[in-house]
């Protein structure tokens, strides 16, 4: 089989943008074109000022700066990019369905199917089609059906190549992946994709499996990771009533090499576009095969996570004498984790919604999230009118402004800069008692207590 010379990726989001940038950076002989229907997003990827890329990831500006215009291109002409490519990645969104059968659980595959139909309609020569999006097990079968029923004689070979990058560390994860997973049946196609990654990933870290193992492994990896967070969060509540400290418990169990130290940080609850969506999808698939015990088991991970978010909001209300009506609460952080501007399923959204129901007055500061995005997140919930969201919640671009005159500060995201603030100065400007609710166990408890804050952290 001839070497891959042209790659197209459909979907220029948090996965398509960074993964293709690194593939282009490491394969200067392959022309990589990333296409999207969203014109504003493509314009931002092409912005001369690398600070304006639509995805904030440490180190991404340098990668894009190196490859863009050389062999990395961002475009809105999807048909042309499909026609010219030897290999096409599908990296579009696969959100939880909000309608019809499987509503609230199953993955919505309409965007993936639209891509397959467009590829089928436009392609005039043989293509390797790669599933980069996270998809339910056996989706490749449906793709194959759509692609093969075009009758134009084009031969499509389908591979599954799920992405394991985490946001905030996407570039280092892509440069140095624990593994790259490629599922497929066609040896030549697999080898072609292996060669793309082998430009920088050691061969022993490139795993090949059958299609179904690859598709399922992605859902299972996310389910296991999220399960660890829910497990330690469950223990955090037990710590609070028994006098144990959840960080000490994490350290004690994490030193056991069978358990390992990662993903044992108690928090206000996991967020992000993947964990909840992928577990719900796993639960849905298990139920569709009548595996009730399996489905119930994994569903608990989500139930525990919802409980943790509610519990944090309730803790704030209860500690502030059972009412937050008219009280100024400064939110430090809105993103679902540090070093990203992504807010999808962020715990901050749900904690804010709970407190706004109680008529709290929230002032948000996040180093990377825009006011527009924050209001969009709240309005999407539909809990109150957009006017009320704007009346009760303000967004500022200076943390000291958010905290001035506040009854309480709540840490929702673990941004490093929050630790470096002048907390003595902040204390002077806050109402007394000055509450701090640390949903990330981020700040220095001893120091805050010394300064006279009433400090509460998850899990102690
Ligand atoms: P995203 O919403 O950021 O990006 C998807 C993009 O696809 C959007 O810009 C959208 O406009 C575009 N798109 C949709 N339909 C299109 C079409 N028919 N033609 C052209 N463009 C189209 O989503 P994301 O976070 O990049 O996730 C993409 C996939 O990767 C999902 O399946 C997700 O589960 C998976 N994934 C995400 C992450 C992550 O950290 N975000 C990690 C691993 C896997
Ligand atoms: C996750 C997977 O890690 C990644 O492999 C997959 O490709 C996409 O989904 P992501 O959601 O970007 O990545 O970030 P991750 O670091 O996994 O964090 C997810 C959520 O869990 C965040 O809200 C984070 O704050 C929370 N978390 C993580 C904890 O609360 N405690 C931990 O110990 C780890």
Mean pLDDT: 97
Q: Spans of 5+ residues with little confidence (pLDDT < 50)? A: none
Radius of gyration: 23 Å
Gross morphology: globular
Provide the helix percentage: 40-55%
DSSP E strands, number: 14
Small ligands present: nicotinamide-adenine-dinucleotide, uridine-5'-diphosphate-xylopyranose
DSSP summary: helix tally: 18
Please outline the major beta sheet: 8 strands, mixed
Q: What structural category arises from helix and sheet content?
A: alpha/beta
Strand residue percentage: 5-15%
Distance between the termini: 60 Å
User: What strand order characterises the main sheet?
Assistant: 3-2-1-4-5-6-7-8
Structural write-up:
- This protein has 460 residues and is of the alpha/beta class.
- 44% of the residues lie in helices and 13% in strands.
- The protein has helices at residues 16-26, 39-45, 60-67, 78-84, 110-122, 139-148, 170-175, 187-198, 211-242, 246-254, 275-288, 292-319, 347-357, 371-381, 386-392, 399-403, 423-429, 445-450, and strands spanning 6-10, 31-35, 72-75, 87-90, 127-131, 156-160, 180-184, 206-209, 328-332, 361-365, 393-395, 408-411, 435-438, 454-457.
- It has an eight-stranded mixed sheet, with helices on both faces. Strands 11-10-9-12-13-14 form a six-stranded parallel sheet.
- α8 links the parallel β7 (180-184) and β8.
- α9 packs across α11, α9 (211-242) packs parallel to α12 (292-319) and α11 packs antiparallel against α12 (292-319).
- The longest helix is centred in the middle third of the chain and has 32 residues, at 211-242.
- The termini are far apart.
- Bound molecules: nicotinamide-adenine-dinucleotide (NAD) and uridine-5'-diphosphate-xylopyranose (UDX).
- Uridine-5'-diphosphate-xylopyranose binds at residues 163-167, 222, 225, 229, 263-265, 267, 270-272, 274-275, 336-337.
